[in-house]
Specification:
- There is one protein chain.
- With 95 residues, the chain is mostly helical.
- Helix content is 67%, strand content 0%.
- The protein has helices at residues 3-9, 21-30, 34-43, 47-60, 63-73, 82-93.
- α2 packs parallel to α4 and α3 runs antiparallel to α4.
- The longest helix is centred in the middle third of the chain and has 14 residues, at 47-60.
- The radius of gyration is 12 Å and the shape is globular.
């Protein structure tokens, strides 16, 4: 799936088939469904899932928890805007 296809899928009622758990989490978060996004990230034990988990906790303002998940993901704590990190997440997870 391309970045543009992912963005277009956000007009649908459910995430497209074949997405990773981390991408499903990003999809739900973008739809304003933080709890669903968090659940999807929580069950994804990969580095991508940890990064998504970090992003979600950063977004909710829990910087300490976010820092823990960035470490698990092997990523530095993000200091960019949430929108910029969203783009980075989507681009990397769609590779």
């Amino acid at each position: 799936m391309t970045f543009e296809e992912f963005k277009r899928s956000l007009s649908c009622d459910k995430p497209p088939n074949g997405l990773s758990r981390a991408l499903i989490a990003l999809w739900w978060d973008t739809k304003g469904e933080w709890a669903r996004a968090h659940e999807s990230a929580r069950v994804d034990e990969s580095e991508a899932g940890s990064w998504m988990h970090a992003y979600l906790h950063r977004k909710e303002g829990d910087q300490g928890n976010a820092a823990y998940w960035y470490r698990r993901a092997g990523k530095p704590v993000c200091r960019e805007s949430l929108q910029t990190e969203w783009i980075s997440l989507a681009a990397e997870l769609l590779e």
